[in-house]
Amino acid sequence: MYKGQDSRIEELPLEGFVVVDLSIGVAGGYGTKLLVDGGATVLKVEATDGDPLRRWSGSGAEIGDEESGPFFQFLAGGKESLVLDPESADVAMQVGRRLASADAVIWSADSPFASIAELHPKRLEADYPHLVIVSISPFGLDGPWSGRAATEFTLQAWSGAIVGLGRGAPDRAPVQVGGRVGQFVTGTYTAIGALTGRVNSRLTGRGCLIDLSMLEAIVLSLTYYPVTYHDVMERPWRTERALVLPGVQQAADGLVGMACGTLQQRQDLYVMMNHAEWIEDDAIMSRPAEVAPLIAEWVAERTVDEIRELAIAFRIPNAPVADPSNVATLDHFEARRVFVENPYGKFLQPRQPFQVSSFTWAAPQPSPALGAHRDRFGPVRAHSDGASGTLPFAGLRVLDMTAFWAGPTSTHLLALLGADVIHLESVVRPDGGRLVGGVSGDVDMWWERSPIHLGGNAGKKSVTIDFTTDEGRTLLERLIETCDVLVENFTPRVLDQAGLNYERVREIRPDIVMVRMPGFGLDGPWRDIAAFAYSIEDAAGLTWMTGYPDRNPLEPSCIGDPNAGMHAVYGLLLALEHRTATGEGALVEASMIDAALSITAEQIIEYTATGSILTRQGNRGPDAAPQGLYRTKDVDEFGRPDSWIALAVENDAQWGALVDASKEVPEFRDARFAAAAGRLEYHDEIDKLMQAWCEGRNAEHIVDRLWSAGVPVAKVMQPHRQIEIEQLIARKFFEDMEHPVAGRYRQSTLPFTMTGLPERLTQRPAPLLGEHNDDELKALGVTDDDLRALEADGVIGRAPAR
After folding, report:
1. Separation between Cα atoms, residue 177 and residue 693, nearest integer Å
2. Gap between the Cα atoms of 138 and 468, Å rounded
């Protein structure tokens, strides 16, 4: 229960929503945690020995006499636990009794119950037609790769995330994004899928199957529309690895991150460092051997605070690089009280990743004792046989005042699922996503050619209004009045100064749901600092977990944006559930930093519970050995000896399969390697043997040989080659677009398929700037004469103001 914004006692939005959890692992655990936070009842069905995460510690610390470790306590707080034997003859019937009275089920392919035919998602869809079913698997339930072995590490390799952003030093192997972020973002999509299915059930009277692919979630979260980029630009985003400068540097008292995404930011950096002469030689940043020592020396002479004060004054994106030992002490996080104590496990954990004005979150709840809840029987859920033929969010009108990637990726998902999304820009300040991607300013209509903008805005409309003018402000308020949802990701001062905070927006449209996505939140000392993915990653600990253990960490430079976008979507869906029940709107504060802290929770939990500092391991992982990249004899598509395969062995069965498949390496049969502990201890030795075996073979041969034996393995793909992956082709993950300026290209869609969705999701390509001014503004009563006057005055338009 919570106290609503108008002082009435209300229910949490998902009160009465009953979910049976047949998953194990982080993705299912985090997805169902988000559902519990929203008020759902989650019954976790466990095998006799419990979810493996119960005994998990990222540092290897002993759990001791406690039944569950702190990370499990965080993920499972507030859930219920039922123990069933997967080998029992009546296990399907036992689960079925609970499913009959549930609303949804979460299933994962690695669960001990996954091999039971009666509990397969497609069978559940037939036998329990009222259920919303979310299945989590590496590749999806259908397609030529369905059922093949994979880990997050090998999925990152297949997606192109490992090599695609040029992450890593040229003299070393490319490097993964650390911290199991792919599992967390898949968990966020799990929660989104469950609520999308809930909306769909209200429309159709029956359940649906949402088939979530972790590969596709990683593609959308760790790569920047690389297929669209390659199609439009006729070249890859990156062709080689290079350390980003200035990047992460060692200051006098800690690590600090700075990044320059625009020419102006680079030039400001040169002036800040007292090297204005570099402005005449901007290519200096492409000569790291020359400039990197100068940057390192300048940073080393100053404290983190001194550097940040200068960088903020020069408007250069920056942040301290947080690690588990310092993240909770950063002044911004202390002021916002983003970490709370878990009283049951005596550790700190991040609060919920967004705040909703219509309710307050419950305090952390205890995780369930194994098998503590035996009876979860309610009335059998009914269903109808009708079908609406309507997309889940059809009729939802969204005013999208976002830019770059974090905001547009959230509203893009809504547009694909039927929402009427109006992307608001101005000719004075077009979406910054139109300005990135390497399109030259002397190309005709350059602002319509950015692959980043095209990828994140398909299916939307475009209206331009300069709301800094009196006429524009009046026009915008009339447009707001017609919308159910407003989403924006300016720094807080922009809308505050325009007088368009939530209080004013609610006066215009009382039941509106307003989603604000500031980088660092609506309050706190960093509130007005512009944020980009890399600064969010630095401050949240994502950077700390990425890179080589013997060098400064590396920014992922990707996950900070889409992770924020998907958490914003989930927060929006909760607020819409509240509005459906009560008729009331809400303010959703979905800051990028809170979303990032939520998926780095394991670091602060482990540190405050055990004193251990989790850190980057290069391409190794916490639960696999061997795990790494191994160079093959191929040359890559750019003619370099830079071709790799990714391998991850998570259990003894996979190790045995590897040993049998690589019979030319008799040393693998050494008794020291037979158990997981030995493989961890002698990882370096195994790496040398594995590298020697791979370097004489081509990647295609290695992957065919090991994968067919059941070993998780992958080619380290260039991301623009995603379109060649037969699994993505079979699942129709990409759709062909025809844009009037950019031409033909392929567009990524959703990471899940869903019962009842049409054959094609993307109804139109990204809109031209101001393309829908006439239609949308005339619907507000604006006349042709008014439109001409507004355009003459620069209030509206179809090209950036010069």
Report:
1. 26
2. 47
What is the DSSP-derived secondary structure letter of residue 364?
A: P
pLDDT in tens, 5-16: 343 336 899 999
C-alpha to C-alpha distances, 251 to 258, 275, 300, 305, 717, nearest whole angstrom: 12, 19, 4, 9, 35
> What angle (nearest 5°) sits at the alpha carbon of residue 234, between those of residues 753 and 633?
85
Bond before 70 cis per omega within 30 degrees: no
- CA–CA gap between residue 308 and residue 455 (Å, rounded): 33
Q: Are 300 and 312 in contact (CB under 8 A)?
A: no
Residue 657 tokens, joined: 């399969």
pTM of the model: 0.97
Q: What would the pLDDT profile of 507-551 be if each residue is shown by its tens digit?
A: 999 999 999 999 999 999 999 998 899 999 999 999 999 999 999
| Half-sphere exposure for 633 (CA within 13 Å, toward CB) | 10
Does an H or E element contain 588, and which? Answer: strand 586-589
Distance CA 31, CA 183 (A): 10
Cβ atoms 175, 593 nearer than 8 A: no
Distance in angstroms (rounded) separating the CA atoms of residues 9 and 15:
13
Number of neighbours of residue 144 by Cβ within 10 angstroms: 13
CA geometry: angle 719, 597, 609, nearest 5 deg: 120
Pairing of strands 18-22, 41-46: parallel
State the sign of the Cα–Cα–Cα–Cα dihedral 146, 150, 156, 160: negative
Q: Which residues contact 210 (CB under 8 A, 6 or more apart)?
A: 132, 133, 134, 135, 193, 194, 196, 197, 752, 753, 754, 755
Around Cβ 280, how many Cβ atoms within 10 Å?
A: 8
Supply the Cα-derived Rg of the chain in whole angstroms.
Answer: 26
d(CA 202, CA 392): 9
- Residue 571, both tokens: 């927060």
* Separation between Cα atoms, residue 70 and residue 48, nearest integer Å: 20
What is the 8-class DSSP label of residue 89?
Answer: T
- Provide the token pair at 404: 């770059």
Phi and psi angles of residue 134, each rounded to the nearest 5 degrees, phi first: -115, 115
Reading phi first (left if > 0) and then psi (alpha if -120 to 50, else beta), residue 365 is in beta
Convert the pLDDT of each residue in 400-454 to its tens digit: 999 999 999 999 999 999 999 999 999 999 999 998 887 888 899 999 999 999 9
